[in-house]
Write a structure and sequence with these properties.
Blueprint (H helix, E strand, L loop, with lengths): L1 H6 L7 H5 L8 E7 L6 E7 L8 H5 L5 E3 L5 E3 L9 H5 L6 E2 L28 E2 L5 H13 L12 H5 L16 H6 L4 E2 L13 E2 L10
Antiparallel strand pairs: 1-2, 3-4, 5-6, 7-8
Length: 216
């Protein structure tokens, strides 16, 4: 979450805004609990934008501010967004964020030096969300085009992926059967979050496996 915030110029809104449900994090950590209420077992799951192939948010936007790229990325056109928040209402994963206030620093503020110049700093009144670090994808495209070759597997590394110490996040081309992400999607532990919704998300998961008591 910290890497995503720093990479994508995500504003830190403060505890009061978080209390009323106005957090801006593009990546949230969903927490679940099971077992005895006094000593519950805890589980967690990182939830970014799912980049659905059948994205309800794209159907719901009245000004077509959220679009689908040929590579399968669910994109946001900030200049087109009029802030109806319809896309957030349509999203079953609740991963879209709305700028209730203008968090941009003044033009002469030193905070500008902390911003990533490759990422747009959003204004008040627009929806925003995970972009799969599209600026990194485009940088890899440019490098590959200069050398007249396709993007290599593992060449695009998202901010959350680069910060994960256990390499639990993998990004790549699912159309390439030899890519690491395709190999993992073929694992028996692979599953889709809220698959019954029929959104066909690009972001999917591997179930955590734990051997039964007394084994392993």
């Amino acid at each position: 979450m910290a890497a995503c915030t720093a990479e994508n110029n995500v504003p830190v809104v403060g505890s009061e805004q978080v209390k009323v449900g106005r957090e801006m994090h593009w990546l949230r950590i969903a927490r679940y609990y099971a077992g005895d209420v006094e000593e519950p077992r805890s589980f967690f799951q990182p939830v970014p934008c799912m980049h659905c192939e059948q994205a309800p948010c794209e159907m719901g936007c009245p000004v077509h501010a959220t679009t689908h790229s040929p590579e399968g990325v669910n994109q946001m056109v900030y200049n087109r967004c009029i802030g109806t928040r319809t896309c957030s209402s349509y999203c079953p994963y609740k991963v879209r964020r709305f700028n209730f206030f203008d968090y941009r620093p003044a033009s002469d503020a030193p905070e500008h030096a902390a911003h990533n110049p490759d990422v747009t700093v959003r204004s008040r009144g627009v929806m925003e969300k995970c972009t799969y670090c599209t600026q990194r994808i485009e940088a890899a495209h440019v490098a590959a085009d200069k050398e007249n070759r396709p993007i290599r597997d593992g060449e695009v590394v998202t901010a959350c992926q680069s910060a994960c110490p256990t390499k639990a996040i993998v990004f790549g081309d699912i159309r390439n059967p030899d890519s690491e992400v395709s190999r993992l999607r073929g694992d028996g532990r692979h599953y889709v979050l809220l698959e019954e919704q029929g959104t066909r998300p690009r972001t999917t998961y591997l179930a955590r496996w734990k051997p039964p008591e007394g084994q392993g």
